[in-house]
């Protein structure tokens, strides 16, 4: 399975105080161990770095992410993400700008998103794309 992992799952997986028992984190660990294709983007890395404190945490995150392929949104991705957000809004679904862009990257690259954020399931009801469900 080709998988895109968002900030919500990474932040649970990277916590040092207690490993999460969430099924998303267990699935991510299995995917990484088995060599599945796991993607992310600079926005996710940035959000993680903003949420963790101290140079050790920063260095650990940067090091772990250095092995992952990054998807880089292009102009068309931003245009389509805006269209997706507008389409959702017309149907009564509120979507954050970054979530629309992450969903667009998954649509463009035919990836399943692994997230604890229920907003992606709501987006998928408006514009179908693969959302991992445990």
| Fraction of residues in helix | 55-70%
What is the CA-atom radius of gyration, in angstroms? 15 Å
Name the structural class.
alpha/beta
Number of helices: 7
Oligomer: single chain
Strand fraction equals: 5-15%
Shape by Cα distribution: globular
Number of strands: 4
Low-confidence stretches: none
- How would you state the average pLDDT, rounded? 92
Distance between the termini: 14 Å
Strand/helix succession: EHHEHHEHHEH
Q: Biggest sheet: strands, sense, closure? A: 4 strands, parallel
Strand order of the largest sheet: 3-2-1-4
Structural descriptors:
4-stranded parallel β-sheet, 7 helices, 134 residues, alpha/beta, 57% helix, single chain
Structural account:
With 134 residues, this protein is an alpha/beta fold. Helices cover 57% and strands 9% of the residues. It is built from seven helices and four strands, in the order βααβααβααβα. The chain has a four-stranded parallel sheet. The longest helix is centred in the middle third of the chain and has 16 residues, at 75-90. The protein is globular.
Write the layout of secondary structure elements.
Layout: E1 3-5, H1 7-13, H2 23-34, E2 38-41, H3 42-51, H4 55-65, E3 70-71, H5 75-90, H6 97-109, E4 112-114, H7 119-126
Parallel strand pairs: 1-2, 1-4, 2-3
Helix pairs in contact: 1-2, 5-6
How would you briefly describe this protein structure?
With 134 residues, the chain is an alpha/beta fold. Helix content is 57%, strand content 9%.
């Amino acid at each position: 399975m080709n998988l895109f992992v968002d900030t919500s799952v990474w932040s649970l997986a990277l916590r040092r105080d207690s490993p999460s028992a969430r099924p998303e984190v267990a699935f991510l660990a299995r995917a990484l161990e088995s060599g599945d294709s796991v993607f992310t983007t600079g926005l996710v890395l940035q959000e993680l770095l903003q949420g963790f404190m101290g140079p050790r945490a920063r260095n650990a995150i940067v090091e772990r992410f250095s092995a992952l392929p990054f998807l880089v949104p292009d102009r068309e991705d931003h245009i389509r993400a805006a269209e997706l957000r507008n389409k959702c809004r017309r149907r009564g679904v509120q979507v954050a700008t970054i979530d629309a862009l992450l969903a667009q990257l998954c649509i463009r690259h035919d990836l399943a998103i692994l997230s604890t954020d229920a907003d992606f399931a709501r987006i998928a009801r408006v514009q179908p794309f693969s959302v991992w469900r445990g």
